[in-house]
UniProtKB/TrEMBL annotation, chains A, B:
SUPFAM superfamilies: Chelatase. InterPro entries: CbiX-like, Sirohydro_Cobaltochel/CbiX. PANTHER family: SIROHYDROCHLORIN FERROCHELATASE, CHLOROPLASTIC (PTHR33542:SF3). The keyword Lyase applies. One of its GO terms (molecular function) is metal ion binding. Keywords: Lyase, Metal-binding. The lineage of its organism: Bacteria, Pseudomonadati, Pseudomonadota, Betaproteobacteria, Burkholderiales. This is Cobalamin biosynthesis protein CbiX. The keyword Lyase applies.
């Protein structure tokens, strides 16, 4: 059976505090995958200003035995970073690891249930 | 009774496509507030690269009769934009509109149920 790794791909920032929700998200996913009987790892990667970058994250997953990697952009919108920068980096990763299947999901903010959760949060603020 | 406006504060991007989830989010909130019997408006504002900026958005809400404005940062993390840039802009808005109560929420990505929805989305990708 294929070992399927997940990379949570985020923008990165100078402020270390910015990283926290992504770490919490990765922890949630690890817990959910473990309780669901899935062994695949979950790691973070950043476009800029934070480590590791996406090629380093993919390298780590491949070294750890993953033969499928899904990159999930933890961005609200499908802007230039997700529509241009990310595909170029993913293409580079594919060239570096031709035997590994590297998939790329749509930005999380495009998902209806994510937007519903954000809307519910906003309504709780007023 | 106070008229309470919501500003969804996002980063902004060069790519117009980036704006779409925020527009969908604003539409969801308008629909929810209308069905909940709340009359207050919901508008977008951007830190950079897109219009309007936060002072212009607050000006619009105040001109429209809002006496309370809640700014919700639609960011994943409490990074420099939310912890430094935003408070400075909000302070400027308060000086411009001293009779209006301007509140500022924590970034949506810090919310547990938002992170749960993002995690569920990620799990559906593998």
């Amino acid at each position: 059976m294929a070992t399927h790794g997940i990379v949570l791909f985020a923008h990165g920032a100078r402020d270390v505090r910015w990283r926290e929700p992504f770490e919490r998200l990765a922890d949630k996913l690890r817990a959910a995958r473990t309780s669901g009987g899935e062994a695949g790892p979950v790691i973070l990667a950043f476009l800029e200003l934070m480590e590791p970058d996406l090629p380093a994250a993919v390298e780590e997953l491949v070294s750890g035995g993953c033969d499928v990697v899904t990159v999930v952009p933890v961005f609200f919108g499908q802007g230039g970073h997700v529509r241009q920068d990310l595909p170029a980096i993913v293409e580079r990763c594919r060239e570096l690891h031709p035997s590994v299947e590297i998939r790329c999901a749509v930005a999380v903010g495009e998902d209806e249930s994510v937007l519903d959760a954000v809307a519910a949060y906003c309504l709780r603020q007023v």
